[in-house]
Amino acid sequence: MQKMQFSLFVFLACWISSNATAAEETPSGKRPNVLFILADDQSPFDLKLYNPVSKLDTPTLDRLASEGMVIDGAYHMGSWSGAVCTPSRHMIMSGRTVWHIPDRKPNSKSNPNIGNADRVPPDLADYTMAAVFNRAGYDTMRTCKAGNSYDAANKKFTVLHQSVKRGATDETGSAWHAERVLDYLADRERTHDEDPFLIYFGFSHPHDPRNGKEGLLEKYGAVNHTDKNSLPPANANQPELPINYLPEHPFHHGHPKLRDEVAVSGVWEKRDERTIRNELGREFACSENIDIQIARVLEKLDAMGELDNTYIFYTADHGMAIGRHGLQGKQNLYQHTWRVPLIVKGPGIPAGRRATGNTYLLDVLPTLCDLTGVEAPETSEGTSFRSVLEGQTDSIRDVLFGVYCGGTKPGMRCVKQGDWKLIKYDVLDGQVRQTQLFNLAQNPHEFLIQHPSPHPNLADDPKYAERLEQMEALLLSEMKRLDDPYRLWDQPKD
């Protein structure tokens, strides 16, 4: 009973505080709106904004970037599940770190901290994105894929649409999500709704199966390949192989029978050039379609006179490999997968700027609160990066931590400080124990020792022994700080 009274007190205090401070207005004299756009599985290096040689055309995102800010160092922190999107989306919605969030199922053991109320609050859903903005007087709407998400938090949206749309037509693909947003905006017009809004505009693509629309597939030389026993046709219009492509990873990734590495339709276990280039073409077709759908929504906001009064965030729940380092999925900690794209436009954000950021996706909630004058919930552990968006500082933190342990334990860990990055693997019951040390200024693509490069993995180079020791200590410190329940083979046990 006492615990229930305390929770009620916290709830009321948060409600009063939120409504008292949510009066921030833009130059228009109105409280700002929020359009949060989330792609499902997209490496930043697919976009020309991060990789100028990419063939992917995204004129809408390019325009958002030219009118706002590109964050070069945005990360998703990691996962304790093979479905990497699940913890990522929990972090987005709650603003909490990777070991302090629940799983979809209450009895899940994926995160060993679940069940510890001090680390994973049982009533956390009441302090997630929609719940916080509802109490602050915002209208909240969400459209996104169904599944592998934070169900309890999603239900807090006043208007909610959930469906997996990965087909090759407007009815079965990304246009479906855009139509839900356009219907919502049309309804606001019809009812003369003047409340500020928060729209969570999520897509089901370019997550596999990457069933692209016919015209876009042709543009990128791809086909929706479905025959496991044959290769897709070669086509000169397909995207080139990634610069860090490998036919296989030099050691096992540590997650036997991982769906993303063995069962993705169109790829399966193949890593040959024709398969990977075709799959990239399919992904680009899906990603350009997302760009087209975003343009439709922005055009509607502009026609309603709401575009200049809206903060627009574009990001993804995590990156993807698709041939990079001989991998296919999202269960790794290389930059192509640990990093995410992040573009922000809105009132007071200088146009055409870039910043390092060093942000996590869990920083989105406190940042949205900061920008709109809404009190961030006390449960949030993220840091607002408003100061970065407004050009007052280049980044909000010095050290970044990453984890993947959805397969065998304790899994992979990484830590980054400045140009230096350490990745460690402790998987398959000790059969794979590897250490990688990269200087990303010299080796931005994380070429491995097997790949010709003047600056490959430096972990075994005696010249960098002191740096390796520093990074090892930093990793352990972050693991302790973030309540990581595991330790690697060469770390002291608590």
Automatic annotation (TrEMBL):
EC supergroup of this enzyme: hydrolase
EC number of the protein: 3.1.6.1
GO molecular function: arylsulfatase activity; glucuronate-2-sulfatase activity
Name of this chain's protein: Arylsulfatase
Signal peptide: 1-22
Gene3D superfamilies from the UniProt entry: Alkaline Phosphatase, subunit A
InterPro entries, per the entry: Alkaline_phosphatase_core_sf, GAG-degrading_sulfatase, Sulfatase_N
Keyword ATP-binding: no
UniProt keyword Signal present: yes
Pfam families (UniProt xref): Sulfatase
Occurrences of domain Sulfatase N-terminal (ranges): 32-374
Keywords: Hydrolase, Signal
